[in-house]
C-alpha cells in the first residue's frame, strides 16, 4: 500500500481539482487535457450549462454543509458550497471529489488472506461476501445466541437512513449487542436531558447577538469552522471572546482573552464562578423563581419534597406570600429561593441553597490551586460573564466534557447560564450542537422490529477491553460501519486485540481505513453523491436531500442495499428491500415535507433565529430547568454539581504520575473530521501531513526533546509517535495530541488515551490521560 505521506501533489493540481483553476474562476472553462495514446485530445470548452448539478450534504459529524456537485458525462468534476445555503463549506467539503475517486477506495468486497492487521485481502464477489456474512451470522446465532452479534456504528455518515437501517437489521434478527454511551458527547446528554428535558440546544443563529462568548474547552475556529464568521461578527459588534483551554488554540488566537486551565478541573472553575455570582448577587432571581427548580425544597436526607409522592411533578416550594408549602406550579406565588426567605427552623432547604453550599468552599485561592487560574482572571471571568449579557457559553460537544467527570463539567455550564438567566435569549444560553431534528419530529425509516431481546450493551469506551475479556458475554461476529474503530476508540492496542479475537469482523467502509486492516471481510460502500438519502439530523438546521450524482465507483453499494440483500436471506426482505424513496418518505411522514420539495433545496423547518427554550420554557415535564438531578443520585453520585478529582491525573494518581507525569489532551484538526478527510491528498497538500505533539519548553528541555523532531508519547496502554512542537502555547505539565491519524500514517493518538467510561454518561474520557514523552532514539 502506498504511504499516504508519499501521495503529495503540486499546488496547481490541487487548485485545478478544486475547480479554482477552471470551472470556478473562468467559465466557460477548459478542463479536459486527456491524452489518447500520447496524442493530446482537442481541448474541450465547457459552459456551466454543460454540467448537471446535484445537491447533497457533507454527512460526517460536522456541520452538514450543503454541497453542489458538478457532473459531466457521468463523472463528478467538482464540488462547491451550495450558493443559497446559509454557510459556506470548507476545504474538506469541496475536496470530497477526491474521496469519491480516491486511490484507497474499496472497490470490491475483500476477504482477508493474511494475518489480521497485515492488510492482505483478495477480492471476492458480492454473492460470496453475502454468503459468508449469512453463514457467520447463522453460526453465531447457533453457538452464542443473538448476544454473540455486535454492531458498532458512529458518525461517518449521519444521514437519516444508514445507521438506523443497520441497527434495525440486527433488531429484526432478534437483537444484538450494542454500545452504551458515545465517544463524543454522552456527558452533555447525561447533563442536559434531566436538566433541560432534551439534548441539543444550539444557539448558532444568534452567536452574533452575543456580548460575551465563552468558548469553554472547545475550539470553534476549527471545529465549527463554517460558522466561525458569526463569532467574528459578534466581536465586530463589540462582544468579548474568551477561551478556556489548556492550550492556546486557534480560537484563542482570535480571542480577547485566553484562560489556560489544568485539564479536568473545569467544574472547580465553574463552582468558583458560581460562588462569586451568588455572593455578589449577580444571579437572576426572577428567572430562577419562574423557570427553574432552584426553588424546589430538599430535606436533610437529600430528597426533594413532593406534594404527592406518586406524582413526580408535584415538587413543593415555599410561597413567601402565603407562607405555606405549595406545589411549584401554583399560580400567583413567589417561591423562596434563598435560605433567608425560608422560615427560621424549616426542616428543608432550597435547591438554590444547596448550590450555594456546594460552591461556598471554592474561594478564588482554592480555585487557583486546583485550576492554576489566577484570582484576578477568575474574578474578571465571573463578573464579565454575569454582567455582559446576553452572554453565551459555547459547548459544542467540547473537549472539556470528554473527561472522567464530564457530565458535571457540562452541567456546571448549564448552571451558570441558568443562574444568570441567560437561557432562551438571543445571544445567550449554552451553544450545543443541534439541528433540524430538534425542530420537527422525524420518524425512523422502518417500523420497529417485533421481538427484540434485551441484551446488555458494552460501554463504548470499554469496547476493546470488554471484548477481550468476554464482557458482558463473548462476541463472535462484529459489524462495524460508519466508524473509525481503530483510530477513534480509546486504547488502540486493546481494540486491536479485540478485533483479532472476534472470529468474524465485517467492516463496511468506502476507503481502506485503519479499521479495514483488521477486518475479516471488507465491504465497499458508497460515499455521498453515489446514492440517494436524507439528512434530517442534529448538526444542521436544514433538512437536506442527498442526491445521487454519479454511479458508485466499481462495486460499491449503499449500506442500505447490503441490509436489504441480507434481510432477504433471513426472511424479512420486504421490510428492507423497498426503493430508497420509501424509507425517506417514512422519515418525512407527518412532517408535511416531501422529497419533491427537498429536490428544490434544503428546508429549515423552523423560523430563523432558532432559539431553544425561548422565554424560559424547557422541555422537562414541568417545563422548568432542573438543578437537582435524581438520575445522578440513583447512580450514587451527588445530585448537585460537584467537583471530583480526575483519577488519571497527577493529583488523582500520584503513583502512576511518577511514571507518566504529563496530562495529555486531544485536539481535532482542520485537516480532518476525526480519521476522515485526513487521507485526502488535496488536503494533505495544504495542511501538514504529519502528527504533532505540543509540549511546553520546560517539559521538552528536561526530556531533551527538540522542536521539529520526532517524539513518542507513551504510557501503560501504548505509544504514539509525533513531531514535537515545543511551545508556550500549552500549559506546563500538559501535552496536546492530534486526533485521527491513520495506522498507515503512523498511528492514532488513541494508542495512549484513557478507556475509562465517563461516570454518568458512560462516555469517553480521552482527555483524562497521563503520559510521558521521550525523544525518538
Ligand atoms: N475540523 C474538525 N471539526 C470538527 C471535528 C473534527 O474532527 N474536525 N469533529 C466534530 C465533532 S464530532 C465534535 S465532538 C466537535 C468537538 O469540538 P471541540 O470540542 O472544539 O474539539 P476538540 O478539539 O476535541 O476539543 C477542543 C479543545 O478542548 C481542549 N481540552 C481538552 N481537555 C480539556 C479540559 O479538560 N478542559 C478544557 N477547558 N479544555 C480541554 C483541547 O485542548 C482542545 O483545544 O467538533 C466537530 N467539528
Ligand atoms: N483520540 C481521540 N479519539 C476520539 C476523539 C478525539 O478527540 N481523540 N473524538 C471522539 C469524537 S468527539 C467522535 S464524534 C468520534 C468520531 O469517530 P468516528 O465516527 O468513528 O469518526 P471517523 O474516524 O471519521 O470514522 C468514520 C468512518 O466512517 C466511514 N464512512 C463514511 N461514510 C460512510 C458510509 O456511508 N457508510 C459506512 N459504512 N462508512 C462510512 C469513513 O470512511 C470513516 O472510516 O471519535 C472520538 N474519538
Ligand atoms: S467538513 Fe464540516 S465545515 Fe467542512 S464542508 Fe463538511 S460539514 Fe462543512
Ligand atoms: Mo464528536
Strand content range: 15-25%
**What's the rounded overall pLDDT mean?**
94
Helix content: 25-40%
Strand order of the largest sheet: 9-8-24-23-22-10
The kinds of small molecule bound in this structure are: ligand MGD, iron/sulfur cluster, molybdenum atom
Structural class: alpha/beta
The total of beta strands comes to 32
- General form: globular
Radius of gyration, CA atoms, in whole angstroms:
27 Å
How many H/I helical runs?
26
Uncertain residue segments: 1-15, 19-36
Distance between the termini: 27 Å
Largest β-sheet summary: 6 strands, mixed
Family: Belongs to the prokaryotic molybdopterin-containing oxidoreductase family.
Pfam families: Molybdopterin, Molydop_binding
Keywords: Iron, Iron-sulfur, Metal-binding, Molybdenum, Oxidoreductase
Protein name: Molybdopterin-dependent oxidoreductase
